Predict the structure.
Amino acid sequence: MSDLLSKNGRIADNVSLPELTVRGIILGALITVVFTASNVYLGLKVGLTFSSAIPAAVISMAVLRMFKSANILENNMVQTQASAAGTLSSIIFILPGLVMIGYWQGFPYWQTLAICAAGGMLGVMFTIPLRHAMVVQSDLPYPEGVAAAEILRVGSADVEADAASGKPGVKAETGIVDIMAGGVVAAVVTLASSGFRILSEGISLWFAAGPAVLRISSGFSLALLGAGYLIGIVAGIAMLIGLLIAWGIAVPVLTSMHAIPDGMTLAKYATGLWSKDVRFIGAGTIGVAAVWTLITLFKPMLEGVKTSFRALSGGNGRINIPRTEQDMSPVWIVGITLVLVAILVVTFGSFLSAAPLSSGVMWGLVAYSVLFAVIFGFLIAAACGYMAGLIGSSASPISGVGIVAVVLVSLLILLVGSADGLLATETGNKLGIALAIFTTSAVIAVATISNDNLQDLKTGWLVGATPWRQQVALLIGCVVGAVVIPPVLELLYNAYGFAGAMPRADMDVAHALSAPQATLMTAIATGIFTHQLNWDMILIGLGLGVALVVVDEILRHRGGMARLPVLAVGIGIYLPPTVASTLVLGTLLAWGIERVLKKRAQQKGVPYEQYAEPSNRRGVLLASGLIVGESLVGVVLAGIIGFSGTDSPLALVGPAFEGTAQWLGLIVFVAVAWVFARRVLNAKHP
């Protein structure tokens, strides 16, 4: 393949290789099913999703190297498709709110599919005009996009060298082995904990210091360990600070102000205060982080919007344009966008069709909602694309964007509904809340795809892909992801339930999926419409967020690596402590491995980035495997639970075994972390 490369390491413009192939689309769809289901489960459980671009690229190379005609551009299309579909699963940050308020009793397949597909595909359309300005001409780092390109280059060079020598592709093979190793270990441990119940899922210790209640806890989820490994130590420290604010300051202060009611345990009392009061401090902090991010990105966002309008108003086809600069034509962009807007109109009409509204009022609300989703989504697409280029897709505050959107659309509907008396009844209020949630779902679909697409287009630019073909792959990924998301949501809801929404009265609330962002945004929308929002705690969170922004800006101006991501602090306050603490442990694991690698690189006199690259790649793949393995077993167990109709159909032990299960869970968790570190450190280094 070396003779096909241009001087900058890309496939040359005058070279035409198979890119968007049938086998690639089929492989991308299969990978999509796996990673989308995994991301839906992980997002509902902990409020985080993971980037599937790199593991999808590794799997693609491992599979397609069996075909002699496979090439780097075909592998790039597979990871592009899978990455878009996995990213679209972020719509679960808001959509479960509809069952939480009782507007939906499940997830209607066609409505859920349509809002996911139309919103996601609009995200693709809105970012196409930004590609040249933000990817080609910009100096934004695009960390995940660059990393995926390097994986593709290394794997393709390895396959080429091995083809010449007649040996199998070692690096591609090693990559798939790492993903599978992490997946198998996590699957076995999850089956033993969530299925057989012989391992505990976490441990919590409660202390009473006078009237104040303190809690120290940790979960044993390997998916969270892997997710923490991927987000890094800076975010980990910030989340730890959030944990300390919530459970070291706020909960003890609140519990010390009142006596524990008779008959209520320490754990139940403290957890109740955290749930109905302290979490809103986190909500306020997250809101400040989102608004501040948008303020700091206002100028580039404005430039991105101007670029979009310039691109849409001009263009004379792709005549004499180099292959690697051929975007989808403006005619196709406008045409597909209009079709998608029409689909949104029909979808919102179907959503409101059962409501007791006159035809005029119903279509008026449809018009307001669709216009908000399209206009706000268009504006936010440039901001999210810039954020992804600056700090990476995984670190972008999509949930914060959702909070801003749900507040704005709730206020808009409240204003419109109050004028015509729509919200005068309890039924009208529920309808308003539901419409706000559904509209925000469309906005989040646009935002999250915009956040991911430019990373994929950066990968394509670096390896020499044809942009319009990659944009078609992104559209396909959105459709496939939208097909997968509704049944997975339905399955998980019926098996586990969500916090505050259990499909059956006999289900164990302790096993419910927390769906943290959906719970938060639903609470905010409900509070706005009922005028019962916990403003005191939100205002405390807003003040805390402002103070943290000031601290972070001071650290930024001082230079160096020390930063305090405000969003991560808010998430640390908001997430359940067994979740947040496990994520922090994952970041500490990554930090410890990094320290060892830096020391070894210094001893060998090799630059750290060069020395650590094999270990960093292996760590990402192993961590991705841990996430995928646990998530897939969670989905499978959901099917078994739903089929059996009981919460613990595979349990081998009873509640009396819980004490022993906690110690066994701790031992296994520590052992897996130790083996993980050993395998990462033992990668072959220069």
Summary: The two ends are 24 Å apart (CA to CA). The CA atoms of residues 110 and 244 lie 43 Å apart.
